[in-house]
């Protein structure tokens, strides 16, 4: 299983690692700073460099059976040999935008009282679908969300045992995406005084880093489903 450096430090933009294998299925490293697509957050992009060779990584995925993280090279790219040490460089602006929006969506959970039925993150916007009978007040949400951002609340992570999560099912806000379990422990993201929920994604250190946002469309996606869109301002 690939060691996930991004779980301990989401701000690592560069690292080195050894190649476990590289073939038509992609490149597996013994450790990585690249986040694999999951939980609504896209897989990271960037480059791998070794010797005089630099290749583009166009996506990052997770093998659900082995736990390996697959770095997907651009079509026709050269592949490093096994045991070769490579340098990893993230497309940092893209990753950081994902971090800001992911944390923002956790704040949205703090101001909307409903279970999450779906979500998606991109560099310019994000959205969550909530199990709600009626649409919430858009302007009130906008004010509440930006207030929590401006409060610059610290964002931290901790680990709990699977059994503790099983005993506290209300910690899980997402109905469509299960928290990453099976290793005996689960990572929890805490936003001081606002939100606490299991999450394997990458986040900023404080809510002030998100910057101002605005609530976009609130859409009806079914009898009990409301989609709330968020966009970065500026």
Tell me the series of helices and strands, N- to C-terminal: EHEEEEEEEHEEHEHEEEE
- Name the strands of the widest sheet in spatial order: 2-3-7-6-5-8
- Give the C-level CATH assignment of the largest domain: Alpha Beta
Task: Tell me what portion of residues adopts beta-strand conformation.
Answer: 35-45%
Q: CATH-wise, what's the superfamily of the largest domain?
A: Threonyl-trna Synthetase, Chain A, domain 2
Main sheet specs: 6 strands, antiparallel, barrel
Alpha-carbon Rg, integer: 19 Å
Low-confidence stretches: none
Specify the helix fraction band: 10-25%
The third-level CATH topology of the largest domain is Threonyl-tRNA Synthetase, Chain A, domain 2
Report mean pLDDT, rounded to a whole number: 93
Q: Please tally the helical runs, counting DSSP H or I stretches of 4 or more residues.
A: 4
Write down the oligomeric state: single chain
Classify the secondary structure makeup into a structural class.
alpha+beta
Number of strands: 15
In whole angstroms, how far apart are the ends? Answer: 40 Å
GO molecular function, one term: aminoacyl-tRNA deacylase activity
InterPro entries: Ala-tRNA-synth_IIc_core, Ala-tRNA-synth_IIc_N, Alanyl-tRNA_Editing_Enzymes, Thr/Ala-tRNA-synth_IIc_edit, Transl_B-barrel_sf, tRNA_SAD
Organism: Varunaivibrio sulfuroxidans
Protein name: Alanine--tRNA ligase
């Amino acid at each position: 299983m690939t060691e996930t450096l991004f779980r301990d430090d989401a701000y690592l933009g560069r690292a080195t690692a050894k190649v476990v294998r590289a073939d038509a299925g992609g490149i597996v490293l013994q450790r990585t700073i690249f986040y694999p697509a999951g939980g609504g957050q896209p897989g990271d992009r960037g480059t791998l460099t070794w010797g005089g060779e630099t290749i583009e990584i166009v996506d990052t995925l997770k093998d659900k059976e082995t736990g390996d993280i697959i770095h997907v090279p651009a079509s026709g790219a050269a592949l490093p040999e096994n045991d070769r040490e490579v340098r990893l460089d993230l497309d940092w602006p893209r990753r950081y935008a994902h971090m800001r929006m992911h944390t923002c969506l956790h704040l949205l959970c703090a101001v909307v009282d409903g279970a999450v039925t779906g979500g998606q993150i991109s560099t310019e916007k994000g959205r969550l679908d909530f199990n709600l009978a009626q649409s919430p007040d858009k302007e009130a949400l906008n004010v509440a969300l930006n207030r929590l951002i401006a409060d610059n609340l610290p964002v931290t992570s901790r680990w709990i045992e699977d059994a503790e999560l099983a005993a506290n099912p209300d910690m899980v806000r997402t109905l469509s995406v299960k928290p990453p379990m099976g290793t005996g422990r689960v990572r929890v993201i805490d936003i001081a005084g606002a939100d606490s929920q299991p999450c394997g994604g990458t986040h900023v250190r404080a809510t002030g880093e998100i910057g101002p946002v605005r609530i976009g469309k609130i859409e009806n996606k079914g009898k009990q489903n409301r989609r709330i869109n968020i966009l970065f301002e500026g």
